[in-house]
Amino acid sequence: MGEFHQKPVTFVREVSINVMHLDNAIRFYQDIIGLQLLKKTDRKAVLTTDGKTPLLTLEQPADVIPKEGRTTGLYHFALLLPTRADLSIFLRHLLQTEYRFGASDHDVSEALYITDPDGNGIEVYWDRPSSDWKWSNGEVAMGTDPLDGNSLLAESDAEWNGLPAGTLMGHIHLHVADLRKTEEFYMLGLGFTIVNRFGGALFTSTGGYHHHIGLNTWNGVGAPAPKKNSVGLNWYSLVFADEEARNKVIEKLNKIGAEATKEDGFYVITDPSGNEIHLVI
């Protein structure tokens, strides 16, 4: 695993979200999801699975407000487990905690869906081998079928001990306001390729992955961006192979009228729907 989440592929590495109550959110992400606390301040916590790599940052703005409905922003972020056995162990853990979840077989993957106490969406999944994915005319076949839970549970009877160290941020799925502008930004600007379209959604990737970024208008065409202090997405990071690759993308973004701002060690860009992206190396 990992060929789609390393150089030279451009991929999602880290996600930052707002929560209502930091300590409650930390408890949920440790006890239910199985992340570990890497560092914490009064209003921010960084979570990891390997003890060193930030995967998820939780923030509690001073004037935080609950998640707003029918806006752009986070649909879900998706944690990719190394093996089917890992997902089996996680499924048994969810059943034992009795925390509500959904489940789907997407042909390319098997996935469990959870919503955190503040309404932030989470997917936990494993990928079937890429040699088993079915491609036709540049599009990958992805379905939404019922998950065979009994088969998944039979994969492992090992005890749950949190998420494995090899867990990655597999992809992110966002609500957007306008698919045409979104397509221009992510394809012509960021250099992603559309690998699947259906029902008001685009699935995009680099390097032949089934998707690094999903984009949909399911909250309504023209949906407004949420307020900065509301529960939901703060930003997510995209990792580029090197400085040259990132500079090429910044030039492409400039050509379509999107300007990246230089921060300390990375660049910040906002997509046409107000979703903030950190361009890192």
Automatic annotation (TrEMBL):
Q: InterPro entries from the entry?
A: Glyas_Bleomycin-R_OHBP_Dase, Glyas_Fos-R_dOase_dom, Glyoxalase_1_CS, VOC_core
Q: In which domain of life is the source organism classified? A: Bacteria
Boundaries of each VOC domain copy? 10-127, 168-281
Which residues belong to the signal peptide in this entry? none
- UniProt-listed CDD domains: VOC_BsCatE_like_C (cd16359)
- List keywords of the entry alphabetically: Metal-binding
Q: Name one Pfam family in it.
A: Glyoxalase
Q: Write the protein's name.
A: VOC family protein
| Species assigned in the record | Peribacillus butanolivorans
